[in-house]
Amino acid sequence: MSRTRSTSNVPTPGQDAVVRTEAVSVAESGGRLDRWLASHVAGQSRARLKTLIQDGRVALDGGATVSDPSYGVKPGQRFVVTVPPPQPAAPEAERIPLSIVYEDADVIVVDKPAGMVVHPAPGNPRGTLVNALLEHCGDSLSGVGGVKRPGIVHRLDKDTSGLLVVAKTDVAHRALVADFSTRKVQRVYRAVVWGVPKPGSGTIETNIGRSSRDRKKMAVVHRGGRAALTRYKVLEAFGDVAALVECRLGTGRTHQIRVHLAHLSHPVVGDATYGRPPLAKLRHWTEAKKAADSLERQALHAGFLGFRHPTRDEALSFSSDLPLELERLIAILRIKPI
Questions:
Q1: pLDDT digits over 234-248, tens only?
Q2: How do strand 58-60 and strand 79-83 relate by DSSP bridges?
Q3: What does each C-alpha distance from 169 to 30, 89, 233, 247 come to in angstroms?
Q4: What is the DSSP string of 218-264?
Q5: Higher pLDDT, 211 or 259
Q6: Top-confidence range, 4-18, 40-54, 85-99, 154-168
Q7: Active site (annotated) includes residue 214
Q8: How far apart are CA 16 and CA 209, in angstroms?
Q9: Average pLDDT value for residue range 21-46
């Protein structure tokens, strides 16, 4: 028996794939649907196709759904098979050191190092904060975040360090998500930026959305996007080359602080995505340039986190000092060139 061809779309990751078969031949008339599909749909076993049929994911092209795997196919019929994306594998527990700032039965606050991804994703299946939390907490992590993100209610970028709260129960998870969405959680960051923002304090209020030039990046957009608000204050200026800036989040959009500071033309030092150093100004600051070039992260640290405990209605606040590599960078920037 010759194999007829099937065609399929190219799905976006995480979306269904739609497969359209060629027509049933006269010689194949009367065969079981699951058996016929197994011979004509590449990459799918008969057992898998039987399940898809029973789940209502197989239909006559332009017609009704067929839910009986034993349905007898007829000459000229074509079928449409909707194949869901594979379910993500559950992350594995890994023995990875954690800097735990606070823990009780409901929540855990960790000080995440730069270089650690918060949850598994394509290209980063292991070595994440979630992998470490699964080892530390066992089964006592909220399931509300799903298989890939148990307990996770907010995130820090891979190369950003600092404080992060994780829910250990579903009740805590829902309460924290509600507080984040209503802007009741206090988050304060410190960043070393290129140049010195003027005025020395202010509010950046824009919409942030996907960049039209590079969909992997975020950008300030004038149409669409989501409202984003960041309050900033210059804490210390290093000549006109760089500054230490405090940033308070009014909202929590993806890459918000990095995008907003770059929008002011003062990108975060070490941020390869949103900014470059002012090479002309660094001409005489050779040690500062060396320190920035050797920084294997962006100079952004989540140094303060405040929230109400999800079950005790008690105000909790935590602080985290700048990591040593950022302290060293600041110390070098304080040394003015001769």
A1: 999 999 999 999 999
A2: antiparallel
A3: 54, 21, 36, 30
A4: EEEESSSSEEEEEEEEEEEEETTTEEEEEEEESS--TTHHHHHHHHT
A5: 259
A6: 154-168
A7: no
A8: 25
A9: 91
Q: Are strands 226-238 and 201-210 parallel, antiparallel or unpaired?
A: antiparallel
pLDDT tens for residues 161-201?
999 999 999 999 999 999 999 999 999 999 999 999 999 99
Please provide the distance, in angstroms rounded to a whole number, between the alpha carbons at the two ends of the chain. 84
Signed CA dihedral, 308, 310, 316, 317: sign only: negative
Q: In one letter, which amino acid is 92?
A: E
Question: Which residues, including other chains, have CB under 8 Å from residue 149's CB and lie 6 or more apart?
Answer: 119, 130
- pTM of the complete model: 0.74
Q: Phi and psi at residue 335, in whole multiples of 5°?
A: -85, 105
| CA distances for 71 relative to 37, 47, 193, 239, 251, angstroms | 11, 15, 66, 78, 54
Catalytic residue among 157, 170, 179, 271: 157
In the chain, the domains with their CATH numbers are: 6-83 (3.10.290.10), 88-182 (3.30.2350.10), 184-338 (3.30.2350.10)
